[in-house]
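Good morning C.,

I know you're traveling, so I'll keep this short. The sequence:
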Amino acid sequence: MPVFGLTGNLACGKSTLLKRLKKKGAEIFDTDKRIHDYYRNPNSRIFKNIRKFFPGVVTGKKICRRKLGKIVFADKNKLRILEGIVHPVVIEDLLSWIKKAKRKGTKIYVAEVPLLFEKKLEDRFDYTILVKTRRDILISRLKEKYGFSEAEAGRRLSLYLPLKYKIRRSDFVINNNCDLEEFKKEVDLLWKRMKQN
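The tokens, ready to paste straight into the viewer:
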């Protein structure tokens, strides 16, 4: 069975899509959950390096993600340091998961990878899925969910490659400019198409 890479901008609905596909029987790799697990584990290499390079964000056995975000998204060099800590470990986990999935091959496998194209990982997957959402909707969601200003939301979105590039490179594009029920219908159609491949 094929291995799909799922991507899209911040707040586009990737996690909602991933949960829905899991309910339908897909085996999943959730990059965000994996990172959060490392952040909660004081013995992990990621936790130790964050404590070393960003000591002000660690209290006891917890990393304050909000504090860390404020620091790294205000300074590109610090963002690069964080990416250098997190990305190699998570990409190693992802590649190991893909290898096992291709060996097992009994289900449909879906990995949520927010920076799939940015990290040039698309060739590791049989197919790629892009969740596409209008920029004004993304900004509205970021303001509502995280309390970002419009400028901060725009800054975060600017870290991603342009949507038109991703659309051209994706095998499946699913729109999420609507309400949740409409999006679920889109996901159901996508699932049917995924099973045909």
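Safe travels,
E.
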